[in-house]
Design a protein that fits this description.
With 131 residues, the protein is of the alpha+beta class. It contains 3 helices and 5 strands. It has helices at 4-10, 54-74, 115-129; strands spanning 17-20, 24-28, 38-42, 79-83, 94-99. It is globular, with a radius of gyration of 17 Å. The termini are far apart. The mean pLDDT is 84.
């Protein structure tokens, strides 16, 4: 079954489109954190953002960059936050949220880990990255 975002791409479900090119679509989130909260997606359905081939990932981020610049120009804000969660819809997507402070993006569940645990995690990731 196609994701809700694929149905939006196909035109089966309406959206408040912000921008589009041949491979990407940007539209307003129907449950925004702030006015202008925008979702940026590849038109091709891929469940997880980091499963995109490198060229498609870069193209999506470059498209999101253009959308973020337009969003900042159109909406009064200090910055545009980018967030990738990907748990609620099985279709890769980027959240762009106009913000005036970090608290405007409310993730609610933050951890506080000891420094030595943070260093260990960082070292493990760095080792994997270097492979």
């Amino acid at each position: 079954m196609a994701s809700i975002f694929s149905m939006i791409v196909a035109g089966d479900i309406p959206c408040y489109k912000v921008a589009e090119d041949d491979r990407h679509l940007a539209f307003l989130d129907i449950n925004p954190m702030a006015p202008g909260h925008t979702l940026v997606i590849p038109k091709r359905e891929v469940d997880y953002l980091f499963d995109l081939p490198e060229d498609e990932y870069v193209a999506l981020e470059l498209f999101a960059l253009k959308v973020a610049k337009a969003l900042k120009a159109a909406m009064p804000c200090v910055r545009v936050a980018e967030a990738v969660l990907g748990m609620e819809v099985p279709h890769a997507h980027i959240h762009l949220v106009p913000i005036n402070s970090e608290s405007d993006v409310d993730f609610r569940h933050k951890l506080s880990l000891p420094g030595d645990e943070m260093a260990s995690i960082a070292a493990r990731i760095a080792a994997e990255f270097g492979k």
